[in-house]
Fold this sequence. Notes:
The protein has 423 residues and is of the alpha/beta class. The chain is built from 12 helices and 16 strands. Strand 1, helix 2 (65-78) and strand 2 (87-95) form a beta-alpha-beta unit. The protein is globular, with a radius of gyration of 21 Å. The termini are far apart.
Amino acid sequence: xxxxxxxxxxxxxxxxxxxxxxxxxxxxxxxxxxxxxxxxxxxxxxxxxxxxxxxxxxxxxxxxxxxxxxxxxxxxxxxxxxxxxxxxxxxxxxxxxxxxxxxxxxxxxxxxxxxxxxxxxxxxxxxxxxxxxxxxxxxxxxxxxxxxxxxxxxxxxxxxxxxxxxxxxxxxxxxxxxxxxxxxxxxxxxxxxxxxxxxxxxxxxxxxxxxxxxxxxxxxxxxxxxxxxxxxxxxxxxxxxxxxxxxxxxxxxxxxxxxxxxxxxxxxxxxxxxxxxxxxxxxxxxxxxxxxxxxxxxxxxxxxxxxxxxxxxxxxxxxxxxxxxxxxxxxxxxxxxxxxxxxxxxxxxxxxxxxxxxxxxxxxxxxxxxxxxxxxxxxxxxxxxxxxxxxxxxxxxxxxxxxxxxxxxxxxxxxxxxxxxxx
Length: 423
């Protein structure tokens, strides 16, 4: 590996131009993803119940639109390795290929095996009001309701597909702010968020507390964020009563995101094989998606949210009499205008030391071993800095500053994680 190389990619958080080659590929896969525009009743190979139903909630009305088209093609390929009598894939897409993503259309699709071609295709089930944003919490709630109403299943999962930025607020006072004036006093420029739904002169994003509140309690087997920066303790704790497992990336993820051709058969197994699926994204960027022969940076973690109560209890011990630790030696996962986020376990240990709290090493190891099912990381991060495996937990955290009374810090104080770990 050339240790001096600095990777230059388009990530799921920043805009850039799409190459001519990629444009040709997008046009090629577009035809394979075309579908009947007439809404149809759900097709049930097994009319009683499925074992696993997964909804891909794709907010692609942004500069990732072409990648969504490509990922849809990958999904259809991956479905060939699944059992349609036991599992089902749904897709909520908030753009329409007929207008090339320039206008809103919120459409719920079902992936069906065609009787004529023996190939999978996306078929419209329902079209929601095109004036609405897919990042509206109510829109997410309705999509989940359609999933559970139309497809009885032993397990449900959601893959959130879009830009991502972590825990911090997208803005205040309204859910929509003008793109042309993102730094206005009423609508401060967002630093981090989940999802970007753009239309004309406006776009919208969703805060993590809104996202969690939009999901029903105790329904989901897993939540997977195919987005940058969403493997954070703040989001994980916010989702503690929503899903059993969380899969996410603490750093950026390359624009291609998850390789659905190889990952989806594992995610859509009758019992999702999440740890194996997480390994596929590491392998894809380590051995397949190389930049000039150099490994593309990648991080991913799989977490058992059933253990997060013990994580919070450990954090309370660490943060008693809280003194903000120095961040100079903490592994940092963010860059650019994204709010700084650091390795969660390393931050917890540093905060405990700075606050004069001695933690039992065996307890720390026991809690994290139950919480972290698996974690993978490349040799270097997106800033070309070495990742120390011994100091990589697979999850990020905000370093709390009690003296900061700014809007971001005040929003952090409103999150469930702050109340559980610091108050």
